[in-house]
Design brief:
Elements lengths: L1 E7 L3 H12 L4 E5 L16 E3 L4 H5 L6 H12 L7 H14 L3 H7 L28 E3 L3 H18 L3 E5 L1 E9 L2 E10 L14 E14 L8 H7 L2 H4 L7 E2 L8 H8 L4 E2 L4 E9 L9 E5 L5 E3 L16 H10 L4 E7 H7 L1 E2 L6 H5 L2 H8 L8 H9 L3 E4 L2 H12 L6 H12 L10 H9 L3 H6 L15 E13 L2 E2 L6 E3 L5 E7 L20 H16 L2
Parallel strand pairs: 1-2, 1-8, 2-5, 8-20, 9-17
Antiparallel strand pairs: 3-4, 6-7, 7-8, 10-18, 11-12, 11-17, 12-15, 13-14, 14-17, 16-17, 19-20
């Protein structure tokens, strides 16, 4: 088969790339090792959050944002410190310009809309020059992940109807075909059909071989989050210590990272592979789809956070403030889990679960369902959250603290948490609730969060005493470490063209999305400000589609 461009991967970045290529009249073949049920890849499962700057949604809520402030936050979070970070830094600045300028109107014209309350993710907690968002910037798309995908799938299907685009599912790329240092196509294994549900593990039974010749190849195959062996191979032991024995997977098994090594074998250059973005608030999915399936809790700021022995973490290890800092603090305890302790009032207002399927009201994009789930539900949290509270293996619910601790210790099979020790810490915290001069940093952070209208309305519970039975029942949640994104990847210039270890461009070879570290080989640096994964897939895919072929 011969075509203008081969796109490896039918996730968000691949679809954006193909849509842009089709607009230019290029003939495109999208190959993917999964079946048509997985069109859209990981983005389908996402909450649909996008990092955008100085938007109408922000301004309506009184949020004053700017490109300069966002740049300061990004660079303080990224902490670029390596010679090879030149391209990632350039990509970061280019994305910030996009996020503060063309991004929203471009997506709006394609039909995207956003939930009116802007989320405040990764609030930081160290200092003004360090990690964190100074203001809320997390724009949840109406329709969540499927809503982000819809216009690009629509555009690609239109190109397919016009004869410009061909989908080849169950085609696993094993080699990049190179000639005189240039990419001229791909080849690999045709896999047997598999009707596993979307996200489920599929077979790798070979039924044939294939080769596609092309003027350009774009690698948009995703990261390594579903491949625990590869994660341990690149694990930053020098920064984080030994890799944890137990992890949950926040992505399907087909997110295996194999194309990154295939591309480096062909002359590409992968950088910053030790920079990882995994979450600390994972719970085992009581109704799993893929192996080790975990769901991340997106917490508000009020749950108390304790280590495996019941010692409260010190700031900035507070819910929603500093993912990497808290990840490191947990590993330093010698355990690979931690605990939230909270009340029903907190779970009602502050708990959200990551994923389109865990937020059917937002995914439906219907206000009636949002109001029913989040406003008119009485004392109950959303249906999916209450289902986890009832069925989830990591949840303990009790009317008294002593019974809660018994349940926590029974859950782990180790009597590590002492009721008296936990009680003293909670009582000390409760004593600060009514003190406007509170010396408890978390109480101060909660009071600050409630100055923001969006948090006060739907995201941050009014401060209250945990040990007051009227605020109960008490809830403890065992939090597991959960894989999600790899921040490093294939190094590209601002055209999404791959460069080799010397920095020279590789003819005909491009990369986009997570495989390219969302741009340049890692435009996040060491930390994500959130909403930058989907945003990076869109931005780098657009660049590849506008420059390749």
């Amino acid at each position: 088969m011969r075509t203008n461009v081969v796109v490896v991967g039918a996730g968000l970045s691949g679809l954006v790339t193909a849509a842009e290529l089709g607009d230019r009249g290029k003939k495109v073949v999208i190959v993917d090792q999964e079946g048509p049920q997985n069109l859209g890849g990981q983005a389908h499962w996402s909450l649909g959050g996008l990092f955008m700057v100085n938007t109408p949604e922000q301004r309506r809520l009184g949020i004053k944002d700017s490109l300069d402030l966002a740049t300061s936050d990004w660079m303080g979070s990224a902490q670029f410190d390596r010679p090879e970070d030149a391209f990632p830094r350039a990509w970061a600045q280019a994305y910030l310009d996009f996020a503060a300028g063309e991004m929203r109107p471009w997506l709006y014209d394609m039909g995207l809309r956003w939930f009116p309350v802007v989320g405040w993710a990764e609030r930081g907690g160290s200092d003004a020059m360090g990690h964190g968002n100074s203001v809320p910037r997390f724009h949840i798309t109406w329709g969540t992940g499927p809503g982000v995908l819809e216009p690009f799938i629509r555009r690609c299907h239109a190109h397919a109807d016009a004869g410009l685009l061909t989908y080849l599912y169950r085609h696993q790329v094993d080699r990049l075909e190179m000639q005189s240092g240039a990419a001229v196509g791909v080849s690999g294994t045709q896999l047997a059909p598999d009707d596993a549900q979307q996200g489920g593990a599929t077979n790798r039974t070979a039924i044939g071989e294939f080769r596609i010749d092309a003027d350009a190849v774009i690698v948009a195959s995703g990261g390594i989050g579903g491949n625990f062996d590869l994660i341990r191979k690149v694990w930053p032991t020098d920064r984080l210590g030994p890799a944890p024995d137990n992890m949950l997977s926040g992505v399907p098994a087909h997110v295996d990272g194999r194309m990154i090594d295939i591309t480096t074998d062909a002359g590409g250059h992968a950088i910053n592979r030790d920079r990882l973005w995994f979450y600390t608030e994972g719970v085992k999915n009581w109704d799993p789809i893929w192996p080790h399936h975990g769901i991340r809790i997106l917490p508000g700021p009020s749950s108390m956070w304790f280590d495996a022995r019941g010692n409260r973490f010190a700031p900035p290890a507070m819910p929603g403030f500093d993912t990497n800092g808290t990840f490191k603090a947990i590993l330093e305890t010698g355990f690979d889990y931690s605990w939230f302790v909270l009340t029903q009032k907190i779970i009602k207002k502050e708990f959200a679960l990551s994923g389109s399927e865990q937020n059917p009201d937002l995914t439906s994009a219907k206000w009636s369902k949002v109001l029913k789930e989040r406003i008119l539900s009485g004392k109950s949290a959303t249906g999916p959250v209450e289902a986890f509270k009832e069925h989830g293996a990591d949840f303990v619910v009790a009317d008294t603290l002593s019974d809660l601790v018994k349940g926590m210790n029974a859950l782990t099979g180790q009597a590590l948490v002492e009721a008296d020790h936990l009680r003293k810490q909670i009582e000390a915290r409760d004593a600060q609730v009514d003190n406007p001069f509170s010396k408890d940093p978390q109480i101060t952070a909660i009071q600050a969060a409630r100055h923001y209208l969006g948090d006060r309305l739907i995201r941050t519970a009014k401060p209250h005493r945990f040990l007051d039975p009227g605020n109960g029942p008490l809830i403890a949640v065992r939090l597991n470490l959960i894989t999600r994104k790899t921040l490093g990847g294939l190094q590209t210039n601002l055209d999404s063209r791959l460069v080799d270890a010397r920095g020279d461009r590789i003819a005909g070879l491009y990369a986009a999305g997570e495989a390219a570290g969302f741009g340049g080989g890692g435009y996040h640096g060491y930390n994500s400000l959130e909403g930058t994964f989907l945003g990076g897939c869109i931005f780098s895919g657009r660049a590849a589609g506008r420059n390749a072929g």
